[in-house]
């Protein structure tokens, strides 16, 4: 799987795939304030500038006549609250850009706070796949960027092809007659997190195939065109539309993969790339699943070991071993007899429990208190707080946002007044993961990996295997796992957090080593990603690189 999306402030139920249902929200991400301080960087040349690269060669996509109309767009920016909104048109199929089929992508920006020192645009992706850059910025995400970056750059977000306000957008919801679909789907028994019997595995395959069929029925024509290779082409059209000769970009989590794919296609068109919470493109589907399963299992151990430091007296047990035992006991109880949820007819089963725990591993400083209180309540027999964390009782449509977010909802980003785009992150995550990473078609390959993942990391690994079952019959892309090849790419800054579960630190180390001149900034802490979580050491290093192209010396840690 790719990494998950990252948003600021208080966690909302994210959209990722884990359960074929409630657990489909479990691996998405956000981040807030850092847990750790900063230590001095090793001796180096902090004032030296990163060497500039030569201008791109004459032969590039912008010079292809079939793409001229797209590359020569000039977005019409209109006010949406304190921000500005516009749209961008990109070809649906870059092999046939003149066939009339397009995606219309919403854009949003916050203009540089110091116009006299403006360097250009800083384009970002908050993660996913399936994260909305428009929603991120309109709901307080500007706080994710340091003051120096905000002074020198217009901060530009967008919804990638197929995501949220994109038109068209991926839609995997069942038809209106969903209860009739799939003959007995509504009455099918819940699939356990680790299906062992033939009957349980047949049920898991049936669930996955129902989801794939729903996507094909509603979004079949666009599914082959929402992968990261095409999204990276869109990023270059956006660069040109913004008037920047070279791209300055910041990607969190999955956004690091988007930035890496861009760098491989357009290495000489990069000014600066920050890749925070890295996805390693050299890992195959099996390695990705095992890596993420281990990451989340370790994160739960980190919670047990560090709970008393982060939330102090609110911990559900007095010792790390006591916390581990409680979590294990709750999983065993939920698997046999789902916990009751006050005020709801829907009990809390093991998949919802896993979703709640998984989601709580992204921003410990803002999430562990709530998780601790929820585990304490669950020990007493009430799963309501855990269900709330998992998003089980979240309304189908969000109630809107304050400030700039209201303007976006009112139509500032190309949406009809009063209409908000559906959060389709879970749908897009499946579509993009299946396109980007080759998957086997034989179910037995999944069962073999399921057994290995369960032995390796328990339900954390097994659930990720189940999330990928639908890829057996999904449209497949042309990408293969590989080490980065990007001749002419200037130095790139990779940021890795040692306690990151969705994108383990080892992947940041690997990506930095693969990139020509790759620089690794280590954040010694817990949670997912580092920039924008209040660590001044990380902010200074990232902003210094973005603004002045200042190198980050080898071995720098915060």
Provide a brief overview of the structure.
This protein has helices at residues 68-71, 133-138, 147-152, 198-219, 228-241, 254-265, 285-310, 320-336, 350-359, 364-379, 384-390, 404-412, 425-436, 443-457, 459-467, 505-514, 536-548; strands spanning 78-80, 83-91, 102-110, 120-125, 153-158, 247-252, 270-276, 493-499, 519-526. The protein is an alpha/beta fold and 558 residues long.
Structure notes:
The protein has 558 residues and is α/β, with parallel strands linked by helices. Helices cover 37% and strands 11% of the residues. The protein has helices at residues 68-71, 133-138, 147-152, 198-219, 228-241, 254-265, 285-310, 320-336, 350-359, 364-379, 384-390, 404-412, 425-436, 443-457, 459-467, 505-514, 536-548, and strands spanning 78-80, 83-91, 102-110, 120-125, 153-158, 247-252, 270-276, 493-499, 519-526. The protein has a 9-stranded mixed sheet with strand order 1-2-3-5-4-6-7-8-9, sandwiched between helices. A hairpin with a 2-residue loop joins strand 1 (78-80) and strand 2 (83-91). Helix 5 packs across helix 6 (254-265), helix 10 packs antiparallel against helix 11 (384-390) and helix 14 (443-457) runs antiparallel to helix 15. The longest helix has 26 residues, at 285-310. The radius of gyration is 22 Å and the shape is globular. The two termini are 27 Å apart. Residues 6-58, 176-187 and 393-418 have low confidence and may be disordered.
Q: What is the percent of helical residues? A: 25-40%
Strand order of the largest sheet: 1-2-3-5-4-6-7-8-9
What is the count of helical runs? 17
The helix-and-strand class reads alpha/beta
N to C succession of SSEs = HEEEEHHEHHEHEHHHHHHHHHEHEH
What is the residue-averaged pLDDT? 84
Low-confidence stretches: 6-58, 176-187, 393-418
- Sketch the major β-sheet: 9 strands, mixed
Report Rg. Answer: 22 Å
């Amino acid at each position: 799987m790719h990494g998950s999306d990252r948003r600021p402030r208080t966690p909302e139920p994210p959209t990722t795939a884990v359960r074929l249902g409630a657990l489909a929200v479990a691996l998405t991400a956000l981040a807030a304030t850092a847990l750790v301080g900063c230590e001095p960087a090793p001796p180096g040349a902090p004032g030296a500038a990163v060497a500039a690269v030569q201008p791109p060669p004459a032969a590039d996509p912008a010079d292809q006549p079939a793409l001229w109309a797209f590359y020569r767009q000039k977005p019409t920016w209109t006010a949406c609250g304190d921000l500005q909104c516009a749209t961008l048109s990109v070809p649906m199929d870059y092999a046939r850009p003149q066939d009339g089929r397009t995606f219309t992508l919403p854009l949003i920006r916050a203009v540089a706070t110091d116009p006299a020192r403006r360097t250009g645009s800083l384009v970002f992706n908050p993660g996913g796949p399936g994260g909305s850059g428009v929603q991120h910025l309109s709901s307080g995400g500007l706080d994710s960027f340091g003051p120096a970056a905000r002074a020198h750059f217009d901060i530009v977000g967008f919804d990638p092809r197929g995501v949220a306000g994109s038109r068209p957008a991926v839609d995997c919801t069942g038809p209106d007659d969903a209860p009739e679909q799939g003959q007995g789907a509504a009455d099918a028994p819940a699939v356990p997190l680790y299906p062992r019997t033939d009957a349980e595995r047949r049920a898991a395959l049936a669930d996955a195939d129902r989801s794939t069929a729903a996507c094909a029925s509603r979004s079949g024509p666009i599914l082959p065109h929402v992968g990261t290779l095409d999204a990276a082409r869109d990023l270059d059209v956006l660069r040109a539309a913004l008037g920047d000769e070279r791209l300055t970009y910041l990607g969190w989590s999955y956004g690091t993969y988007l930035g890496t794919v861009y760098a491989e296609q357009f290495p000489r068109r990069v000014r600066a790339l920050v890749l925070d919470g890295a996805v390693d493109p050299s890992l195959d589907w099996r390695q990705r699943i095992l890596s993420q399963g281990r990451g989340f299992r370790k994160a739960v151990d980190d919670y047990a070991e560090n709970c008393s430091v982060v939330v102090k007296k609110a911990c559900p047990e007095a010792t790390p071993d006591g916390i581990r035992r409680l979590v294990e006991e709750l999983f065993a109880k939920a698997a046999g007899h789902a916990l009751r949820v006050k005020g709801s007819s829907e009990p809390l089963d093991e998949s919802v429990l896993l979703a709640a725990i998984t989601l709580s591993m992204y921003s410990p400083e803002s999430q562990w208190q709530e998780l601790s209180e929820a585990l304490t309540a669950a020990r007493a027999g009430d799963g309501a707080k855990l269900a709330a964390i998992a998003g089980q009782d979240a309304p189908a449509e969000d109630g809107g946002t304050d400030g700039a977010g209201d303007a976006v909802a009112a139509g500032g980003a190309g949406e009809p007044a009063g209409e908000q785009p559906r959060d389709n992150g879970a749908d897009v995550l499946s579509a993009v993961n299946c396109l980007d990473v080759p998957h086997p078609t034989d179910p037995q390959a999944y069962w073999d990996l399921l057994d290995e993942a369960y032995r390796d990391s328990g339900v954390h690994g097994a659930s990720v295997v189940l999330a990928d079952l639908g890829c057996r019959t999904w449209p497949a892309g042309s990408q293969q796992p590989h080490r980065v090849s990007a001749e002419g790419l200037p130095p790139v800054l990779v940021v890795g957090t040692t306690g990151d579960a969705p994108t383990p630190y080892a992947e940041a180390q690997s990506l930095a080593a693969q990139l020509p001149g790759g620089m690794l900034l280590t954040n010694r802490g817990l949670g997912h990603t580092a920039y924008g979580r209040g660590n001044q050491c990380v902010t200074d290093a990232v902003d210094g690189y973005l603004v002045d192209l200042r190198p980050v010396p080898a071995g720098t840690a915060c």
